[in-house]
Write a structure and sequence with these properties.
The chain is mainly beta and 170 residues long. The chain has a single domain, classed as 7 Propeller (Methylamine Dehydrogenase, Chain H). The chain has strands spanning 8-13, 19-24, 28-33, 38-44, 50-55, 61-66, 70-75, 80-86, 92-97, 103-108, 113-117, 122-127, 135-140, 146-151, 156-160, 165-166. It starts with 7 loop residues before the first strand and ends with a strand.
Length: 170
Amino acid sequence: MTGHTDSVYSVAYSPDGKTLASGSADETIKLWDVAMRKEQTTLAGHTDGVSSVAYSPDGKTLASGALDRTVRLWDVATRIEQSTLNGHGREVYCVAYSPDGKTLASGGADRTIKLWDIATRQEQASLKRYKEELITSAAYSPDGKTLVSGSMDWTIKLWETPVRLPILTP
């Protein structure tokens, strides 16, 4: 599938597997029909490369993190941006929904993981256990009790949720 005009940084399947989202250095997100292998639409709004995309568990919302230091939430049905979440001091490299869809985690070059309340669109917590390197990935365990993050410092950290304490420390 082709259509982006620069590097593709991230891809994510919708929960039903029918749609694929891709985030690119061209500052756009494209939604693709998987069966037809065709572009459905382009979502534009970020002002720098889109480094991460993730669908909510119900498939109604797409989250995107970008080098413009923002996290954006998109309504999948209308393809309209719902919210811009500001709070990271530097580039955002990863986004991940909790299994219940109530919390979104984002991490990036400011060495923090932000936890966002999806209902209020407000920051719930900022996890700061990284000293020198950016956070490149995040994922929740299937039961939602643990958040895991990966960093350029060669470490993986496990966080207890909702207590938000590190389970393992260096």
